């Protein structure tokens, strides 16, 4: 029997669901059940959904790890186009009502909905990825220092460019993605001030498809490549697949994001042009929250992953990246200086 007592821990530091939960591995039960203790982790995906080879898939990896280790029932639920905060709240409430614990909203867009759902179900632990605005005893704000990994991506880009021009494609013009841009641009400039950075956002709002439109990402990357960018870093969720496709077609480098995109099966035909990925361990954060609930000591408050904790960084899967001694030395030096505080990475 799972323990579901609520222990407040100071934090150290994403179609409405009126229908049964059957999406993507979730197992449906009666939404009228108030029982607790028989179900485990549930996640609600952000824009782009499962299969984005990035942010959402990383959360799913955490769910799969928890399911395997704890042997319990899990659920993962897709978003819908044009949904409202009320739709999101209904999704989260339904999961909690069915007995899932914890319930995680993958992405900042769940903030208002998750805050309301958490108030209605105080004995359920909720988690939200990439938002630090909810202050509640039963909510864990799972956040990361993405700017640190992005700085390292900037070092890699500056060391790899042959045209002295590199690109950045952000999905949506919001503070979260500004962190990626700021860190990347700083890493490039600190490494080689002569290198030009072309930065561009796909949309002003997520509703316009900035995180879910590979065609938009491809067009943006092609425009930057026409301007001589030979390394393009995408922080754009599913849209980043289009950036990677454009880089491969034009035989330049792409830098992936969130997950190690070199290893993603859906991107296998492009992997020789994926230099590295600026990763953040969403899987670990989601799994750790589930583990804390399982142990009866649920995480709450700000739970932050950074370079020092190993929860952000650069992937080393591409041998052309991993075996480049000069590049690896430059990245190692930057890592050490960030961790020591000698380098202060900007977040905006």
Model description:
The protein has 348 residues and is an alpha/beta fold. The chain has 2 domains: 23-144 and 282-305, Response regulator (Rossmann fold, 3-Layer(aba) Sandwich), CATH 3.40.50.2300; 146-279 and 318-340, Response regulator (Rossmann fold). The chain contains 10 helices and 12 strands. The protein has helices at residues 55-70, 85-97, 111-120, 146-160, 175-191, 214-226, 240-249, 282-294, 319-322, 325-340, and strands at residues 39-44, 73-77, 103-106, 126-129, 139-144, 165-172, 196-203, 231-235, 253-258, 274-280, 301-305, 312-314. The strands form 2 sheets. The protein has a 6-stranded parallel beta sheet, sandwiched between helices. It has a 6-stranded mixed beta sheet with strand order 7-6-8-9-10-12, sandwiched between helices. α1 (55-70) links the parallel β1 (39-44) and β2 (73-77). The longest helix is centred in the middle third of the chain and has 17 residues, at 175-191. Residues 1-36 have low confidence and may be disordered.
Number of beta-strand segments: 12
CATH level-two architecture of the largest domain: 3-Layer(aba) Sandwich
What is the overall silhouette?
A: globular
**Straight-line distance between termini:** 46 Å
Q: What do we call the CATH homologous superfamily of the largest domain? A: Response regulator
């Amino acid at each position: 029997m799972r323990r579901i007592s609520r222990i407040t821990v100071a934090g150290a530091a994403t179609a409405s669901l009126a229908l049964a939960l059957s999406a993507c591995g979730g197992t449906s039960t009666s939404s009228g059940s108030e029982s607790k203790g028989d179900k485990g982790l549930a996640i609600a995906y952000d824009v782009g959904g499962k299969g984005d080879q990035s942010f959402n898939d990383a959360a799913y990896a955490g769910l799969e790890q928890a399911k395997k280790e704890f042997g319990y029932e899990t659920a993962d639920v897709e978003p819908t186009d044009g949904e409202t905060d009320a739709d999101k709240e209904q999704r989260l409430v339904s999961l909690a009502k069915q007995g899932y614990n914890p319930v995680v909203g993958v992405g900042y867009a769940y903030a208002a909905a998750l805050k309301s759902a958490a108030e209605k179900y105080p004995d359920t632990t909720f988690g939200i990825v990439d938002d630090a605005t909810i202050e509640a005893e039963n909510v864990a704000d799972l956040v990361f220092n993405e700017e640190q990994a992005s700085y390292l991506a900037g070092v890699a880009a500056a060391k790899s460019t042959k045209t002295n021009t590199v690109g950045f494609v952000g999905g949506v013009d919001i503070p979260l993605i500004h962190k990626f841009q700021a860190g990347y641009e700083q890493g490039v400039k600190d490494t080689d001030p002569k290198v030009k950075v072309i930065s561009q956002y796909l949309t002003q709002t997520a509703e316009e498809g900035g995180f879910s439109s590979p065609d938009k990402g491809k067009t943006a990357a092609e425009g930057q490549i026409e301007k001589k960018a030979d390394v393009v870093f995408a922080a754009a969720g599913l849209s980043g697949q289009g950036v990677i496709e454009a880089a491969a077609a034009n035989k330049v480098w792409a830098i992936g994001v969130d997950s190690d995109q070199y290893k993603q099966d859906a991107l296998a035909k492009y992997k020789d042009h994926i230099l590295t990925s600026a990763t953040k361990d969403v899987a670990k954060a989601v799994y750790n929250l589930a583990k804390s609930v399982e142990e009866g000591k649920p995480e709450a408050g700000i739970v932050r992953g950074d370079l020092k904790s190993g929860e952000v960084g650069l992937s080393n899967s591409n041998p052309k990246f991993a075996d480049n001694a000069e590049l690896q030395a430059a990245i190692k030096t930057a890592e050490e200086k960030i961790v020591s505080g000698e380098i202060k990475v900007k977040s905006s």
